[in-house]
Amino acid sequence: MPHPPALKASLKRGAFVAAANWPLIAVQFIAEGTLKLLLAVPVVGGIFLVVLLLGADVEDVMAGDVKEIISSVVGALRANPVALGFFGASFMVVLLGASVLTFIVKGGTVAILADAEARAGPIERPPLRLAALRRANLTNIEPFLSGCRTFWQRYVKLGLCLLVVYAVTAIVFLFLGFLVGGYALSGSSGVLRALLGWIFAAPLALSVLVVWITLVNFLYLLTQMAIALEDVGVREGMRRVAQFIRGSLREVAGIFGVVLLLVAITTIASILATAGLGLIAVVPFVGLAMVPLQLGAWLLRGVVFEYLALTALGAYLTQYRYYLHSLATLRVPDTASDVSGPRLA
Predict the structure, then answer these.
(1) Within a 10 A sphere around the Cβ of 148, how many other Cβ atoms?
(2) What integer best gives the mean pLDDT of the chain?
(3) Rounded to the nearest 5 degrees, what angle is found at the Cα of 14, between the Cα atoms of 126 and 18?
(4) How far apart are CA 294 and CA 198, in angstroms?
(5) Which pTM value belongs to this model?
């Protein structure tokens, strides 16, 4: 039996297949951007509600980033439980609707990328030619819509499971935070002890949360892949992903580690670029160029992250197809041992 594809070959194949189907990068970027844009609608409505009905100061509410604005709106709405309830309901409706849209779009993306990876041929072997990229480019509206129609129910179900995991994670971490904070305040040292406890516990808790969310998203991606490749349900897809990880742990861990490192480098680079743009903003007249520069940086960052995600998916597809081929090879009966009938002397 041949050895599984090397890590470098899998990543190159995934990168070339993702680059050949570059419209999928744009589709995923637009879907993610639409999700964030739709989530801003109830936030803007909450701002108007707070300013017009509760008489809050606009500058106080709009100070800070999006997370701080949401916190300010929720804090101001606490004085009116009915308004807070309607704001929370509208936010949840938009969140669920926009998330379902992204789940359905993901069905078409994974279906096309899986088909492209299967038909790409040895695209990872040099020299790379334009004809090979054209052969791997299968992005078209009809197969995309067909993939959405085929997998939308299973992908929505899987996506809702993901949202439930996110919600349970948030509840558990908030509960543990209140529990630890209340226990620290109950001691004799009071506020000082609680403050020191939060200083040391917050980085550890944040690290655990980041690792957990990363692993959840990793399993979510592999389950999408298994559902699309083997045309199974969500539960069966999870079971086959567990078998795939056990059988190809080394290869899967290698792809996961390399992609995670690339994401970390890209994130650090985007933070440094944002800091550099902040320095430009204080320069007179030159600061007027901040808006197009920030827009360009946002577009570049989003496209790079989507490309890395599709590259990882292509690499996992390569390893998963080899895994399925290995299982099929092992299940082929030995014809020599199955010969029946009388033997010739």
Answers:
(1) 18
(2) 80
(3) 105
(4) 34
(5) 0.80
Cis peptide bond N-terminal to 122, omega within 30: no
Residues 6+ apart with CB under 8 A from 91: 39, 42, 43, 46
Spans of the chain below 70 pLDDT: 1-2, 49-79, 177-202, 276-291, 331-345
Contact 157, 54 (CB under 8 A): no
With residue 300 as reference, give the H or E element that holds it.
helix 290-331
In this structure, what token pair is assigned to residue 170? 């948030």
Tell me the pLDDT tens digit for each residue of 260-294: 999 989 888 888 877 766 666 556 555 566 667 77
Closest CA to 116 of 219, 29, 22: 22
Structure tokens at 205: 């808790």
**What tokens does 303 get?**
């496209």
Residue with tokens 């190809």: 248
